[in-house]
Amino acid sequence: MFRIGDFAKMARISVKTLHHYDEIGLFKPELVHPSTGYRSYHIEQLSRLNHILVLKDLGFTLIQIRAMLNEGLSHSELRSMLHLKETELTNHILEEQEHLKRVKIRLRQIECEGTHNTYDILVKPVEPQAIASARGLIPLTDDTFQQCADLATAIYQWLHQTGSRFSDRWYSLYHETTSESRHERIDIEMAVEVEGSLLMKATHFPSDQVKVWELPGTPAMAYLLLSGSYDRLWDAHISLMTWIEDHGYCSTGSTRCIYLRRPSPHEEPLTELQIPIEPGH
Question: pLDDT value at position 273?
């Protein structure tokens, strides 16, 4: 019989580890002295301890190892568990490789720009949303902002005329234009969130300019938050598109701007810029 300190040295583990294994019922001493509480171990227990250490090195938790040993798994059952662990570790490696890829991309952005990119870009699922919208092909002039405001006014007036309820969350949807005209005009759709019931009721209030429809959801929406002037929207959009391309995605729909907080004398505007994505081919 070996006292706990000698047995720990023989097994090349700490006394504290043996205490812990005893406390959780994983590996108990052969004998505990009734008056002193000293633990003693038999040399034949080394094989079980080594088996525990091997399974731990393979990535199994102590709780899993205890269950495996107590249940006396057969060779085929152990092989199945090892296959599951292999799959788990493979998935973990793939996730870590993706994290490493993102770190390298961020480093490259910093090195190219000479500064830290202030846009933190994430991906989230987005549910479908009923909206009322008005769309226009607007020339890029000093009057562009006012024409966008006119579209929003048309929506606002129609909703009031029909007695429809709506939220204070406004959107702008930027649709793709031809390469010849993209530097001269924008295809923009102003929108506001409305109740889903309006999708059916809207047919009773026809309008040449305003339509009510369901903005599609997506399982993957790349987005960033922009705090500050709308003048930075284009720069933020370029950063978002670059991130999508660098991470192996492609866009699947129009760019969306959600105006979470409009400008006021005391607060800067807060805008969420979104682009639906899917893995590139």
Answer: 97
